Amino acid sequence: LKRRFPDVQLRISGALQRSGLRQEGYIAWVNREARRLGVEQNLSWLGPLTADQIVAEMQHCAAVLLPTYVEGYCLALAEAMAVGVPTAVAYVGGAAHLARDGESALYFSPGDVEMAAYQVERLLVDRPLAERIGRQARQVALARNDPIQTFERQMDIYHRVLQSTQPSTNKLPVSSSSGMHAQ
């Protein structure tokens, strides 16, 4: 991406685990890779951000990149969608259920750096595509998080549970504090 967009910035938020001048783990690895690739000037560590700061940061970026390997519920994708920022995201875990590829996000396989870069490049070059994906993502997020619809879905679940007269035939193991299991 740097060859095509020399001023591109990768801005990383989150708590920075630093101890004095010595950085350990993930941060040190990212900084070493940035130096090795000659992209140090294109990398910014933002540190921990408040919800308002996250929204402001997203509103000022052209795209969000989420190259995760493991994700239960991809909160960062949900946030980007709610803000309406076009996002390139690894197709993994909860992220796979939040958006549709080519409609409300662009997916790539976890670890596929070339495809991740390609998807980000598409969002940077094809502004009508990026705007459409951002707009659709926001519509999906607003519909998914509509308080009235959420309440109605939850009440429907409660109603169906309370009206159920058939006991379940599913027998799940129940764990006790003694480590014994009941069926």
Can you describe this structure?
It is a single chain. This protein has 183 residues and is α/β, with parallel strands linked by helices. It has two domains: 1-48, no CATH class; 61-162, Glycogen Phosphorylase B (Rossmann fold, 3-Layer(aba) Sandwich). The chain has helices at residues 25-37, 51-59, 75-83, 95-98, 113-125, 127-144, 147-163; strands at 10-13, 18-19, 22-23, 43-47, 64-66, 87-90, 106-108, 174-175, 181-182.
Name the descriptors:
single chain, 183 residues, alpha/beta, Rossmann fold, 2 domains, two-stranded parallel sheet, 9 strands, elongated
Give the SSE layout.
Elements: E1 10-13, E2 18-19, E3 22-23, H1 25-37, E4 43-47, H2 51-59, E5 64-66, H3 75-83, E6 87-90, H4 95-98, E7 106-108, H5 113-125, H6 127-144, H7 147-163, E8 174-175, E9 181-182
Parallel strand pairs: 1-4, 5-6, 6-7
Antiparallel strand pairs: 2-3, 8-9
Helix pairs in contact: 3-6
Number of strands: 9
Overall CATH architecture of the largest domain: 3-Layer(aba) Sandwich
Strand content: 5-15%
* The named CATH superfamily of the largest domain: Glycogen Phosphorylase B
Task: State the order of secondary-structure elements, H for helix, E for strand.
Answer: EEEHEHEHEHEHHHEE
Largest sheet: 3 strands, parallel
Low-confidence blocks of residues: 176-183
Helix tally? 7
CATH top-level class of the largest domain: Alpha Beta
- Average pLDDT, to the nearest integer? 87
Q: Largest beta sheet: what is the strand line-up?
A: 5-6-7
